[in-house]
Every structure is written in C-alpha cells, then in structure tokens.
Amino acid sequence: MNDILIRIATRKPFKNLVLMVISALLLGCVSIACSGQHKDTIGSVTLNETAIELTEGEAFTLAPTITTSNNDFSVAWTSDNENAAIVSSTGKVHAIAKGKAVVTIVVKNKTQEVSSSCTVTVKPAQKVNPGKSDGKRLNLGYATFEGDIVKGKPHGNGTMVFTQPYVIPGTINCTAAPGESVSGVFRDGKINMGTWHRLDGSQMMVKVGQRSAE
Predict the structure, then answer these.
(1) Residues 156, 161, 163, 169: is their CA dihedral positive or negative?
(2) Quick check: 17 pLDDT over 50?
(3) Where in the chain is the domain with CATH 2.60.40.1080?
(4) How is domain 42-123 classified at the CATH fold level?
(5) Helix (H) or strand (E) holding 65
(6) Strands 85-87 and 51-55: what pairing?
C-alpha cells in the first residue's frame, strides 16, 4: 500500500498540482503584504493657527496641512458656536459677535478620522461716536460712509467704502475687501438692500440677513 501511495505522489501530474497550490499560496501572501504596505493612511492634520482673535465683522482663513498616503479623503469644517464665529467649506472664519468658538477641521478616509482645531475669540466692534459726523460723511473705523445719517449711523441712501476686510453690516458673512463698496438703502447702520461693488469689477446684490456661499 505504501509503495502505491509513493508511486502516485511521484507522478508528474500530481507534482504539478502541488506546485500550483504552493505558488497560489505564495502569491496570496505577497498580495496581502503589498496591500498592507499601500493602506490608505492619514499621517497628521495641522492648522496655520491654533488660536486667533478677531473683531466682529472681521474674517480670517485657516489653512490646513494634511499628510496622507493618497488623496482619497474628505474634509469638513465646523464651529461649535456659530453665534460667535462661522466657518466656510474652505476654512474661512467669519467673526459674528462677541464670544468664543472652536473651529475644527475633520479629515476622513475609509478607516481613519483625524482632526485639528483653532480657538476663535471674537471681540466687540468699536462703537461709533455719533458726534464724529458732518451730517453726510461718517468714519466707521472699518469703512467710510457717505449719505443719509441718523443718530450717528447710516440710515437711508448712501455708499459704504471699506478700508479693511469686514463683513457687510446686516449680512451674515459677506466679507468685503479693502476698496470694495456697498451702495443702497441702509437701516440703523445695516444694509437693507444694495449693490456690492467688488474689486474684480463684478457686482452682487446684497440684503439684510444674506449669507455668502464662501
């Protein structure tokens, strides 16, 4: 019996089958090892700032540095206190009102989730002195206004020209750049309805409560 088994085992077809099985097992091991080496990995996520201080109406863009094995990941931004500060999908932070907010970026792939945060402290805007006006012109600190003024505030028709990056008063996060202007109807210092004239030559209609897509 043993002699028969030995003769069967030494036949060429059987030897070929054994070699094929061994080769398949080896290839499987190599494949597993290679797939482990190329596993998607997020190394780290950092922001250009971990704490910032803004004045109501100001804006600041947080820039992330992401180390990863490939580009198969998603990015999401959140603010834990949108009454104080909000953040866009590109990391642009808009200061809304006095308070603190923690802005967080979350980077995710199929197996990992890595985050980094920045604490945003929002200071109140400097109050305008109603006495510093000649009835038609007003220096707001962040902009100059020419037009109808009531009780030291833009109220009626006029034009506001910005001297620093600032959220157009009355909107949620429409941030005007220095040199840009808004012309239209104002109510109690805020835009009611008007036209935003931008540096690139474009114009955009704005109104109270408007939120920018940025």
Answers:
(1) positive
(2) yes
(3) 42-123
(4) Immunoglobulin-like (2.60.40)
(5) strand 64-68
(6) unpaired
